[in-house]
Amino acid sequence: MNTKINQYLYPFIGQVRDLPVYLTGIGGTEYQGRIKRPEGYCWHQILYCADGSGTLLYGNISVKISAGCFFFLPAFYPHEYYPDDKKWDIRWTVFDGYACTKMLSEFNMNKPVIIYPEDGKLLSKLFDKMYVALKTDKIYGNFTCAGLVYQYLMEFHRLADSDKANGFSDKSNILMPVLNYIDENFRNNFSMTVLSEIAGVSHQYLCRVFKQIMNIRPNEYVVCRRLTEAKRLLAETDLSVSDIAEHSGFSDTGYFCTVFRRREKITPSEYRKLHNTSNLS
């Protein structure tokens, strides 16, 4: 649905309350405001970002939400989201049912799920059908929507599973700009805040992804990158140890020597001798 939606639609639940899955609400706004729910929401939700960008917060995780993103929020799961732009077009589908919780558990959807599907056309079509059915058929529209929301949920799960298969790639995409920045700036001092902003995720989430992919924390990676440069300079130049420390991004020579010996099991001077270069230290 390319047209803007600025309407909330809620079906008469009494007719469908005994169904395994049914729609409890659908709608959207092109000017989504801040939503803060410390206790979560009473129903399950799948939200879609049609335009603009915002931020989703849950637990210790902060995720940027931009056009093309679908995200699932379980019932009673604390969360918050807010726009980063003046205009943030968000459409939501809200659902419940006696079999809903069990089905979501089978899908491992017990916490928020964020996906950027390559092809979300079916999800969009199902949303449009639910919206039109509820708006145009006040008697049977909610029954129609019950079947459609089940399809909607199944398609979201299929796409989420596909995303999980590509999860390593997705996380690598988060890390690549950070790794590139570190490679270009390891000689300088910079904070984790800078790296988090480059990645577009929270400090905590960046550390988690770094650990999963690189098996190391970001600050440890920076130290390793500096040591790699120091070893190159020790092997290829006649620079003094203190100059090498400075050129590698270590502001203190004593600290550099301590870190070098702890990680390499030998001193910088011993490392230089092993590589048959100058004996200057």
Stretches where pLDDT is under 50 for at least 5 consecutive residues are 277-281
CATH level-3 fold name of the largest domain: Jelly Rolls
Q: Strand order, main sheet: write it out.
A: 1-2-9-4-7-10
> What percent of the residues sit in helical stretches (DSSP H or I)?
40-55%
CATH top level assignment of the largest domain: Mainly Beta
* Overall outline: elongated
Fourth-level CATH superfamily of the largest domain: Regulatory protein AraC
Binned strand content: 15-25%
Main sheet? Answer: 6 strands, antiparallel
Q: Report the average pLDDT across residues.
A: 89
Task: Record keyword descriptors for this entry.
Jelly Rolls; Arc Repressor Mutant, subunit A; 281 residues; four-stranded antiparallel β-sheet; 19% strand; alpha+beta; six-stranded antiparallel β-sheet; single chain; disordered C terminus
